[in-house]
Amino acid sequence: MAPPGRPSSRDKIVAAAVELSKEVGPGHVSLDAVAQRAGVSKGGLLYNFPTKQKLLEAIVAHHIEEFETAFQRKIDNNADKTDGVISACVELFEKKHKNKMPPASGFLAALIENPDLMHPARVFNRRLVDMIRANASNEAAALVVFLAIEGLRCLPLLDLDVLTKEERDLAVQELHNMVSRG
Amino acid sequence: MAPPGRPSSRDKIVAAAVELSKEVGPGHVSLDAVAQRAGVSKGGLLYNFPTKQKLLEAIVAHHIEEFETAFQRKIDNNADKTDGVISACVELFEKKHKNKMPPASGFLAALIENPDLMHPARVFNRRLVDMIRANASNEAAALVVFLAIEGLRCLPLLDLDVLTKEERDLAVQELHNMVSRG
DNA sequence: ATTACTGTACCGTCTGGACGGTATTGTCAA
DNA sequence: TTGACAATACCGTCCAGACGGTACAGTAAT
After folding, report:
1. In this structure, are B9 and B84 located in the same domain?
2. What is the mean pLDDT of residues B22-50?
3. DSSP letter at B121?
4. A24-63 tens-digit pLDDT
5. A45 and A68 part of one domain
6. Residue A117 in contact with residue A60, Cβ under 8 Å?
7. Same domain for B93 and B26?
8. Both A115 and A141 in a single domain?
9. Is the CB of A51 under 7 A from strand D?
10. Same domain for A95 and A118?
11. B 106-135 residues with CB below 8 A of A?
12. B2 pLDDT above the threshold of 50
């Protein structure tokens, strides 16, 4: 792959693309701009990602890996416990929200270019739902919690978030109650 | 405005743009294609909407009006009743889902072009949240229900929906329970 | 010699939008 | 009644710029 010490050019390029998607809007991510932002020549960019589609695939994979890593850490502790998976989801969102992690804006850039690029994310999401249902004490309630978290994550992505911090905290608290009540 | 008998050119153009956004993807909605689909020349399109931004503004307004109309009809019956607003939201989603109404794909085309175009939708959403809270018996639960509905609406928009019909029905049923339990 | 680029010069395509025309209808003075 | 003009609602063409992608010569490190 790459010398794991410093960030590889690939990583810098992916990071630059995600930043740009947030800054100039997901519809205006040009290869020239990405290369400039990443401190790489356009030739260099196309050396690493021969087409724009390959770059966008890498962005989607990056977001998924990021989430999966954090998720695996959370779930190792309470994998088999009743409602362990959905609890982990709530806690994970709470943590990301406290750390003011930005939304996964790279997804939109990929979606725009070609909806098929979302396929890996769909597969991941489906697996997540299966895991949630598998050890949920109340499947219906667990699904609602899952959907609410998705709402909390999607609304900012679509620039549609209107909740105050207090409202978000209130909702997250209620999600906690729902999963601990079982 | 226009003779209210036949659909005006403006309406045809907006409808064509929404359809195209769904068919070719929100990032590939060109004025030429919209004009062709609407049965109008490009000059005619530009006559009705002097810039692409104006067209996208009209699309956003169209989606909002559509939702608002249906919402007002629902809410007239149980406006002041406890949990009346959030109940109306659940029922409205259920109805749209049963009728297999497509997601508001025009939003994405607007978001891509210019995130500011989502502002009217944000204003509407904020008003909706205020109304929900105003007559909710349990604000936290009502917020969770609101977020779950948004999740149900946003996931298909992002091509991320992975739920089976049964799972969706189960979740909607649970939402009903949550609001009627108060 | 190979790897991993840099830098520059292009090419073809697509797209938003400007522009000049045109058909129809309405208005209104002579 | 009619001729002059104007507003409305388009049509069809053209163009400048942006963008994805190619090609290729050079270079510095391993």
Report:
1. no
2. 96
3. H
4. 999 999 999 999 999 999 999 999 999 999 999 999 999 9
5. no
6. yes
7. no
8. yes
9. yes
10. yes
11. 107-108, 111-115, 118, 121-122, 125-126, 129
12. no
- What's the predicted TM-score (pTM) here? 0.93
Question: Both A124 and A37 in a single domain?
Answer: no
Interface of B with A in 4-33 (CB under 8 A): 25-27
Which residue of chain A has the CA closest to B114?
A: A25
Give me the CA B42–C1' D7 separation in Å, rounded. Answer: 21
Averaged over A160-169, what is the pLDDT? Answer: 97
pLDDT of residue A5: 36
Closest in B26, B150, B170 to A139, CB measured: B170
Q: Please report the residues numbered 135 through 164 in chain B whose beta carbons come closer than 8 angstroms to any beta carbon of chain A.
A: 139-141, 143-152, 154-155, 157-163
**pLDDT classification of B109: cutoffs 50, 70, 90:** very high
Confidence check: pLDDT of B7 > 70: no
Residues B117-163: tens digit of each pLDDT? 999 999 999 999 999 999 999 999 999 999 999 999 999 999 999 99
Q: Is the Cα torsion angle A136, B93, B150, B113 positive or negative in sign?
A: positive
Reported as type and span, the H/E element at residue A22 is helix A9-24
Q: What is the mean pLDDT of residues B26-30?
A: 95
Which residues in B lie closer than 8 A to residue A111 (C-beta atoms)? 25-26, 108, 158-159
H or E element that contains A42: helix A42-48
Owning domain of residue A96: 59-181
Say yes or no: A148 and A116 in one domain: yes
The count of domains in chain B is 2
Closest residue of A to B158, CA-based? A111
- Look at residue B4 and tell me whether its pLDDT is greater than 80: no
What CATH number did the domain enclosing A7 receive? 1.10.10.60
Q: Are residues A65 and A44 in the same domain?
A: no
Tokens 């909002």 belong to which residue?
B64
Optimal mutation site among B160, B168, B170, interface A, most CBs of chain A within 10 A: B160
Residue numbers 17-76 of B with CB closer than 7 A to any atom of strand D:
35, 39-48
CA distance B97 to B172: 10
Domain's final residue, options B11, B26, B50: B50
Cβ B17 vs Cβ B61: under 8 Å:
no
Instruction: Out of A121, A160, A178, name the one closest to residue B125 (CB).
Output: A160
DSSP state of B99: T
What pLDDT is attached to residue A92?
96
Q: Residue B120, class by beta-carbon neighbours within 10 Å (0-12 exposed, 13-18 middle, 19+ buried)?
A: middle
